[in-house]
């Protein structure tokens, strides 16, 4: 039996398509059985401007185990998208936390979820929503976020994902007033994200992620990294093609220079973006930071020349790590970032090579122990101890004697000679002020 390729006209319909045309392209039962053997591709999209999705989407994705939720169900689990359940907002739209179980629908696994609502006036639209459903509905991997289901009612477009309790790498790495992300967690995140990209690049029908960045890497409770937001993902080149020509899209600071200049997209474009994120993990700096001096605003341009120089590497490492990282691991990770950030795409490693390089780094144990000072108490001879007590007693008696004389207007014959214009107290404060102004040293104080 010949396998018939499904056209996107069966999936995305427009108002001008007639009922007869829709019936004509509706896949037969024997064809839908072949879906698991040939992944649907966005390159089959015949009408990207369409805003209405037919019931054929759920038929075509049969076997993907995606749930088709109603808008009312999603309102119920998010308490009508309450602000108390608000998790954040990106280019797609706001994200709210919810909870699903078999009470909502029989057979559903009880678990928290993240519900992403398409902002109709936002930066992304129906096509990006559809790309997420198509890619994540058919691709499954431990380092890709799991799409549980979607909703398509009238103009409403929603996506339901597994909930990732630690949020994005961006929030963990750059937020203020929080504990620094430890070295071991950074290497684990880099390795997990690399495995996710490698899976996409090496799939039977390769996928170019196109928007690899810190905010699109989500973390679960034990810092397992998962790629999310496939709105800009593209199918890789087919046959003898070396690249995909496309409109330049992505995020400043992460996009590969050759892609920005030519619009030619390859898997090596993703490798460059990975190098930027790896650099962010090493330095604790954002890919683009306008608050820094001009020459340091673009992270890749500023840091790359120093990555292969062990003497200069310490200058780019995240100071918040306070030296608590593997020096040999940092050198290997920096050398890898250097290769990923090459302006010559062919000099960059593949993502499978990146994974092999990072794999041993998570187990490096030459992390220095933090500074710890312990003062050993001196052993005192019993006789010296008694003499010390005797001297201390005399000192205290002398202090009480001097205090008694001062209260009664007497002068002690050991009193220091001072300027007649300054009392002892005034003199001390004057000297203190003078020393402070001239930067002189003071005894350390316990605060």
UniProtKB/TrEMBL annotation:
Q: Cite the residue spans of the region called Disordered.
A: 380-447
EC number(s) of the enzyme?
2.7.11.1
A Gene Ontology cellular component where this protein is annotated is: plasma membrane
Q: What UniProt keywords are attached to this protein's entry?
A: ATP-binding, Cell membrane, Kinase, Membrane, Nucleotide-binding, Plant defense, Serine/threonine-protein kinase, Transferase
The residue ranges of the Protein kinase domain are 81-373
A single GO molecular function, which one?
A: ATP binding
What spans are recorded as compositionally biased (Basic residues)?
396-415
Which InterPro entries does the annotation name?
Answer: Kinase-like_dom_sf, Plant_Ser_Thr_Prot_Kinase, Prot_kinase_dom, Ser-Thr/Tyr_kinase_cat_dom, Ser/Thr_kinase_AS
SUPFAM superfamilies xrefs: Protein kinase-like (PK-like)
Going by the entry's taxonomy, the superkingdom of the source organism is recorded as: Eukaryota
GO BP term (any one): defense response
* Localisation per UniProt entry: Cell membrane
Q: Where is the composition biased (Basic and acidic residues)?
A: 382-395
Please list the residue ranges that the record marks as compositionally biased, kind Polar residues.
Answer: 418-432
Question: Pfam families, alphabetically?
Answer: PK_Tyr_Ser-Thr
| Protein name as it appears in the record | non-specific serine/threonine protein kinase
């Amino acid at each position: 039996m010949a396998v018939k390729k499904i056209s996107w006209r069966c999936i995305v319909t427009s108002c001008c398509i007639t009922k007869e045309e829709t019936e004509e392209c509706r896949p037969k039962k024997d064809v839908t059985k072949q879906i698991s053997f040939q992944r649907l591709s966005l390159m089959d999209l015949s009408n990207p401007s369409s805003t209405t999705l037919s019931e054929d989407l759920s038929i075509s994705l049969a076997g993907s185990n995606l749930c088709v939720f109603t808008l009312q169900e999603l309102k119920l689990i998010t308490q009508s998208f309450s602000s108390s359940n608000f998790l954040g907002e990106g280019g797609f739209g706001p994200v709210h936390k919810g909870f699903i179980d078999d009470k909502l629908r029989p057979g559903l696994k009880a678990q928290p979820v993240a519900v992403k609502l398409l902002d109709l006036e936002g930066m992304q639209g129906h096509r990006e929503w559809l790309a997420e459903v198509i890619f994540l509905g058919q691709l499954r991997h431990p380092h890709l976020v799991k799409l549980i289901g979607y909703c398509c009612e009238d103009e409403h477009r929603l996506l339901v994902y597994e909930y990732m309790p630690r949020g994005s790498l961006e929030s963990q790495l750059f937020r203020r007033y929080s504990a620094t992300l430890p070295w071991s967690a950074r290497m684990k995140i880099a390795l997990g994200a690399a495995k996710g990209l490698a899976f996409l690049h090496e799939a039977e029908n390769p996928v170019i992620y196109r928007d690899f960045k810190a905010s699109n890497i989500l973390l679960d409770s034990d810092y397992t990294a998962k790629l999310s937001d496939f709105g800009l993902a593209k199918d890789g080149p087919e046959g003898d093609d070396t690249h995909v020509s496309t409109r330049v899209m992505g995020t400043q600071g992460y996009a590969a220079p050759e892609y920005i200049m030519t619009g030619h997209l390859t898997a090596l474009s993703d490798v460059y973006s990975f190098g930027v994120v790896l650099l962010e993990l090493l330095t604790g700096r954002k890919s683009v930071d306008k608050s820094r001096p001009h020459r340091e605003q673009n992270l890749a341009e500023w840091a790359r020349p120093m990555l292969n120089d062990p003497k200069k590497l310490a200058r780019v490492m995240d100071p918040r790590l306070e030296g608590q990282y593997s020096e040999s691991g940092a050198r290997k990770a920096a050398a890898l970032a250097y290769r990923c950030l090459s302006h010559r795409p062919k000099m960059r490693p593949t993502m499978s090579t990146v994974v092999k390089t990072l794999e041993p780094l998570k187990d490096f144990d030459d992390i220095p122990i933090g500074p710890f000072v312990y003062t050993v108490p001196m052993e005192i001879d019993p006789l010296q101890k008694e003499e010390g007590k005797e001297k201390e007693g005399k000192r205290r008696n002398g202090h009480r004697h001097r205090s008694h004389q001062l209260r009664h207007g007497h002068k002690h014959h050991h009193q220091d000679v001072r300027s007649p214009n300054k009392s002892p107290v005034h003199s001390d404060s004057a000297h203190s002020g003078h020393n402070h102004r001239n930067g002189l040293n003071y005894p350390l104080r316990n605060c």
